Amino acid sequence: MNAMARLKYLGTETYEVFNRNKTSWAGLLLLSILLLIALLAPILAPYNPVEQNIIQRLQPPSSQFLLGTDYYGRDVLSRIIWGCRVSFVIGSISVGIAMFFGTIFGSLAGYKGGYLDHLIMGIMDVLMSIPILLMGLLIVAILGPSKVNLIIALALTMIPRFARIARAPTIAAKNKVYVEACQAMGFSDFRILVVHIFPNILGDLMVMGSIWMATAVRTEAALSFIGLGVNPPTATLGGMIREGFKDILSAPWASLFPGLVILLIVFSANLLGDGLRDALDPKLRNEN
Amino acid sequence: MEYVLEVKNLSTAFKLRSGWYPATCDISFSLKPNETLAIVGESGCGKSVTAFSLMGLLPKHGSRIDSGTALFKGEDLLTMPKDKLRKIRGSAMTMIFQEPMTSLNPVLTVGSQIAEAVYYHRGGGKAAAKKRALQLMDMVKIPAPESRYNDYPHHLSGGMCQRIMIAMSLACEPDLVFADEPTTALDVTIQAQMLYLLHELKQKQQMSMIFITHDLGVVAHVADRVAVMYAGNIVETAPVAELFANPRHPYTQALLKSIPRLDRDNRDIAPIQGMVPAIDKMPGGCRFYSRCRKQTQCRPDEFPQLKALKDSQDHLDRCLLNE
Amino acid sequence: MMNDSTDQPLLTVENLAKYFKIQRGFPKSVTHTVKAVDDVSFTINKQEAFGLAGESGCGKSTVGRCVLRLIEPDSGRVSLGDLDVLGLGKSDLRILRKKMQIIFQDPYSSLNPRRTVGQTLEEPMRVHKLYPKDDIPAVAVELLEKVGLSANAVDKYPHEFSGGQRQRIGIARALLFNPELIVADEAVSALDVSIQMQILQLLRNLKEKLSLSYLFISHDLAVVRYFCQRVAIMYLGKFVELGSVAQIFDDPLHPYTVTLRNASPIPDPSVSQEFAQLKGEVPSPISPPRGCHFHPRCSKVMDICHTVYPAWTELGEGRGVACHLYI
Prior knowledge:
Largest sheet of chain B: 8 strands, mixed
Strand content of chain B: 15-25%
Number of strands of chain C: 12
Largest sheet of chain C: 8 strands, mixed
Number of helices of chain B: 11
Low-confidence stretches of chain C: 1-5
Helix content of chain B: 25-40%
Shape of chain C: globular
CATH superfamily of the largest domain in chain C: P-loop containing nucleotide triphosphate hydrolases
Strand order of the largest sheet of chain B: 6-7-8-3-9-10-12-11
CATH topology of the largest domain in chain C: Rossmann fold
Oligomer: heterotrimer
CATH architecture of the largest domain in chain C: 3-Layer(aba) Sandwich
Strand order of the largest sheet of chain C: 6-7-8-3-9-10-12-11
């Protein structure tokens, strides 16, 4: 009874928040469609994305190849669908890792304050001062290009941002009377952070998460474009732009369509994030 | 008798998620020149709402005035065109707010804020406005006004900020001043100074005051007349001595019996049981019925009107048993 | 004040002090020390409500929190029965939490808005394993009923309750551990006048039934008079006077107490009160006046008051005062 009531309350609360801003629906819808396409890649993609067929190379869009073929004769549409998958995987895993570690560091710094706060945030500042592409370059140069290393590089650039996001609401929550009440109840700091403070910062984290997802996808594309991303022949959106670039004037579809899809992913993730942020911000604060 | 303010049957409503609900009902009172009326009641009773609706400061969305008239020196505030109301507001009819530290603009000097009130309504040069501002600061007993003029609100204590607010409200020699819980946020010794200041100012200036508070101690020493509000209604109105000596409405009686006094031992104190009904769950009859000790003698479905008592024209109450 | 069982007080506080360091100034910052609590000593007996009264910034809330070690005091000694409160290690603080609890001022922010009332009450019991797991929900319901709320409150969220009801939940939470002493930090100040008395009577009943003592912190002297047996008046971190409520409010000795009492408006227009003679503002705690802190505002100031801080003088019958008039 208790759990059901609680779930229902959480569900309605989330829905109401979401519904306040219509752009979040658009963002969510678009993102969901793209996600679905990526998930259903094995079913949806009409052709094998890596199989080369030199005879058909650089064909313009036709009824046979809906978005044309690239330099190696591979179906652009199929490569895009599979590329989406890669983008989403890399994007969500790196954001997930960054959110996890970033939140721990940030809320620890905010809650404990003092020396630990300065130390942690100092390290975060250093990490954040390294430009994203440079970080990607460094990691890939040291560890070699691969999906995993790409994820590590992206996560490292995002951890400090999440730490910052987690720190401020933690400090605000720490000063709330009910946190003092928890201390009076003899709860450990760990318990207070995880059970009482964390749910209050979750909203802000979600917003950032969706916005940073877009950045992760963009960065992956950029790194792939300069050749430091995922290795060929795996289809990635950035890699496709790279490969199609030399023929951009004669066969623009090979670069254009992957670029458009990146645009779509980034746009919808930003819409979602913006919508969430607007809805979560002041209006929800007067729930008390 | 020329009344400064005559309010008749003022009713307002608020919008909740589930619809519009009456907030204040049938508010009626009159204010003579130089008179201080205290509107006393607990949170949610509608005392601040009444003041805001008279000043035209109710939030645009989610609240509305349903009926009533409010004649300020003969003109109805509620039907007045907005720009005319705005001219009156801040000059002939002003307000002192509850939280002095946050009611002042933090990025402007306190002196300039007073001068702005003068300049906006009275015109004249900036120099004349400053001179008047200094004069006002002196009137509210701010020590060394010339040096304080350029201070910012955060340099001043709560009591000082409240004096600045009072100075602003007196800038244009108003006929009516609303004071919305002006001393609630102040320490008791500062509150005492503030009450004395208001008392002095009232004697020097010709102004009427509507003093809104929940503190019956303050009422006893500030008011000439008192209106007691409960759940959106005025339930009793009387001259101050009469109200405390001879309360007639069961709510007033119960309220006076439930507050501890510093000057005696408080043996026969008794709380009022129960709670004020929520705005969306108001009963159709008397709103105090569920908590009234004379419940058994009364009828729940009939809504009582505010009527003068038989033996005193000055003393009105809203109780079926007193009719 | 009759103590039936033993004469040993429940709580003994000796020379409690808490200083805060503030850095002001740019570019070279100067460190000021604010003596929020300065050499405070008192005792609370069993089943007694001891009042701590004063205006904002006098340090009364800090005293309450130091006694509970929610703030760590800088010096002094606090004993609860035989327990040396300040000597407990961090890991042993749980022992303390079971004996002393707190009720907060703001009913709106003292409860986690995202937890149901049931969760808020059950959590401490689960964490500290106070009862067998299956009994805990029933204990929560019992507590709610003890404070005048119905059992169906357990599934509701704080925003569904009024201020007075939330304060009752806060009281239920404080009672979870069967404490011996409860610090009530302005526990009724944020409540409506008619609700205040409901809560005060509830607290009083609980005092009798559960043999509780209270450290009752408040700025409202009339409430202190009603609820407490003895009271201490604080000014800028120090006690200025201590005694029974009748003594302090009917016959105050310290000029500040007189000022405070005379400034509190009495709800009776037939009692004439002179508000005129009160002067000045509460001085900044960063640099309190030399000598007696109150001397700039004192109507009975003497030469010695400017230079020497008056020592605490015991006047017998449990009364004490810090004023040169009585040394």
